[in-house]
Design a protein that fits this description.
With 103 residues, this protein is mainly β. It folds into two domains: 57 residues, Domain of unknown function (DUF427) (Metal Binding Protein, Guanine Nucleotide Exchange Factor, Chain A, Beta Complex), CATH 2.170.150.40; 39 residues, no CATH class. The chain contains no helices and ten strands. The strands form four sheets. It has a four-stranded antiparallel beta sheet with strand order 1-4-5-6, with no helix packed on it. A two-stranded antiparallel sheet has the order 2-3. A hairpin with a 3-residue loop joins β2 and β3. The chain is globular and about 30 Å long. The two termini are 27 Å apart. The model has no long low-confidence stretch (mean pLDDT 86).
Length: 103
């Protein structure tokens, strides 16, 4: 989502790396008095071909009370690594659950 529409990022807390998009940073999100560490991530300086990501923040749906797309509540992608938002429009199989590490 565009940074201007995202929940307020608190402070960076970790620096994962994607072989395609480059170095990212985890962000804590703050809502009122609640801070959720590593609930989001972004790519401040993405690799060539992924420049559009520079001004975006991605949120782990599983870290939030609820996330919706066009009014539909999403299901977080299985596992703790991927940040997919699963809706009725998404068909599997989906990576992240038990037995999917090898593909």
């Amino acid at each position: 989502m565009p940074r201007r529409r995202s929940p307020r990022p608190s402070r960076p807390c970790g620096a994962p790396f994607c072989e395609f998009k480059g170095s990212a940073r985890y962000l804590s999100l703050r809502g009122g008095d609640v801070v959720v560490p590593r609930a989001a991530w972004n790519y401040p300086t993405p690799a060539p071909g992924f420049e559009e990501l520079a001004d975006r923040v991605a949120v782990y749906a599983g870290a939030m009370d609820a996330c919706t797309v066009d009014g539909e509540r999403v299901t977080p992608q299985p596992g703790g690594f991927y940040g997919g938002w699963i809706t009725s429009d998404v068909a599997g199989p989906l990576k992240g659950g038990a037995g999917t590490a090898g593909w």
